[in-house]
Amino acid sequence: MIPISYNVRSLAVRKTTTFATGFGIALVVFVLAASQMLALGVQKTLGKAGDPSHAFVMRKGADAELSSAIETPKVGLILAGPGVKKDASGKAEGVGEIVVVLALNRADAPDQISNVQLRGIPDDGLGFRDNLHIIAGRPAKPGADEVIIGKRLRGVFKGLDLGQKFEIKKNRQAEVVGVFEAGGASYESEVLADVETVRTSFGREGIVSSVTVKLEGPEKFDAFKAAMNSDKQLGLNAMRETEYYEKQSEGTAKLITFLGGAIVFFFSIGAIIGATITMYAAVSHRRKEVGTLRALGFSRLTILSSFLLESTILAFLGGAVGALCSLAMGLVHFSMMNMASWSEITFSFDPSPQIIARGLVIGALMGVVGGFLPAFRASRISPVEAMRD
Amino acid sequence: MSALIKLEKVGKTYFRGKEPIEVLKDLDLEMPEGAFEALMGPSGSGKSTLLNLIAGLDSVTSGTISVSGVNLGAMSEGQRAHWRSQNVGFIFQTYNLLPVLTAAENVELPLLLAPLSSAERKTRSLTALRAVGLEERGHHRPDQLSGGQQQRVAIARAIVTDPKIIVADEPTGDLDRVSANQILELLVKMNKELKKTIVMVTHDPAAAERASIVRHLDKGQLT
């Protein structure tokens, strides 16, 4: 075995080409890791909105709250379903909510309009979600033109900050009286208002978009679902809340993964070609060294392995730099359209050990692929020919 | 002395495109064990080709070449590489040290092919460096050494595996007279004290004078 120090020091000698190749591979791993972190961030942000002991009910055929409408009388029937938890006073724990989309001007670019999800919640809606807490201001008063906003919306849109006002509909102002957090869930990118305020503002009297109920336990879901889905007249579809949010994140996460994958694919071709050129140059420059090693008795396989190892070390180091830089993306919040709700949600890049490990492996693999042909050429160098150079 | 290296009707032909170039023709030669042989001759006479064949770097086109009774022509390339690592030490005109490794690491290189522990390798490398008077320069890289010192490191590398044969291709060709004499004295010492069989290609009559046998080649044949 040729000592690894030979490969490492040879890389250090060729600083410029080593840096250029390492940079290319670092870039690929950075993009790969960042896109996967974002996809995971999307899944986690939307996933955190779901609770496994919650059942989520929409109109049959609707794939999102925006396209769902359940008549108000049915809410009582849903709350009376089997397995629905009751509070100390015997009241079923559940909320019927209405969801609409607001078009608001962005604060950073006032001429640009983006969608924000407005959720109308009943009086007891705030207490229904355990992870939702007011962090500034106060809750909105029922029936008043007041709203509270998720902390990720704060200052992003014109009028969406504590004490500010915005038009909930033409000539109807709503005031932001509170800011809440929800443990990183997608609610943090929503505006919450009293359900009646939303109904009257958007002409949605007599309906809700969805009903969410707390079950006595996750195991009660099957019976609840059977009861909801079997009654054709109700025309309802029940699913676990977690399942609903998984589906909501699916499209966006897939799109990010696809776009990230496409960029990574093209970048990686460039990086592999870069590694190949670098290693071909290294082999050409070190023909005499290879010839000497062959003369001393090192086999072709050993020479091939040594050069392959060298390109893999180079790629791995590049990949490690890319992966390290991608970790910094964990500090970045990224606002984008959620394909399911057509409203803007702020996601964060979510690093995970698996993503970093995958990036490192792919970086090293690029070294193996890019370095193979040059390493093979090195292994075919004749010691007699090399000595004549 | 018995013949360590034996060539019978050895021929070597290279091809330049489709044109055959016969470098060695029906060469018969015996080199005794423990000899210090110098091969002389004009450029293109086949000296280096003969040296490469004896060292197992190249294969014959016709005839047989055997070392210690082992027919090199019957070996595969991989087998020859293994044989070289155990039986041949190399000294090149331009030293051919790996520039990124220290002198000690360069000397240790051939030992990496032997079943030795790291400590044993280090001890042997140091002994070889001591034999050439460079034990204090083991941590220096080749570019921190003079030409003569680099060639001494190469000699240490050549003897570190305790091979039967040392092949030297113009070992003093790149050196000034003083350094060349030091190298030749070292080769004589390796031959006399360590009983190494040395085959040296040289253009330098002063170098050839140190050898016990001088052979002349011309147009692929001994003259």
Q: What would you note in describing this structure?
A:
The complex is a heterodimer of chains A (389) and B (223). By secondary structure, chain A is of the alpha+beta class. Chain A folds into 2 domains: 4-47 and 248-388, no CATH class; 86-210, no CATH class. In chain A, 49% of the residues lie in helices and 21% in strands. Chain A contains 11 helices and 14 strands. In chain A, the strands form 3 sheets. In chain A, strands 1, 3, 4, 5, 6, 7, 8, 9, 11 and 12 form a 10-stranded mixed sheet that branches. Chain A has a two-stranded antiparallel ribbon with strand order 2-10. In chain A, strands 13-14 form a two-stranded antiparallel ribbon. In chain A, helix 2 (15-47) crosses helix 9 (300-327) and helix 7 packs parallel to helix 10. The model of chain A has no long low-confidence stretch (mean pLDDT 89). Chain B is α/β, with parallel strands linked by helices. Chain B has a single domain (3-100, 142-222), classed as 3-Layer(aba) Sandwich (Rossmann fold), CATH 3.40.50. In chain B, 33% of the residues lie in helices and 28% in strands. Chain B has helices at 47-54, 77-87, 103-108, 118-131, 147-159, 177-193, 205-209, and strands spanning 3-16, 19-32, 36-40, 62-67, 70-71, 88-91, 165-169, 197-201, 213-218, 221-222. The longest helix of chain B is centred in the C-terminal third of the chain and has 17 residues, at 177-193. The model of chain B has no long low-confidence stretch (mean pLDDT 93). Chains A and B meet through helix 1, helix 8 and helix 11 of A and helix 2 of B.
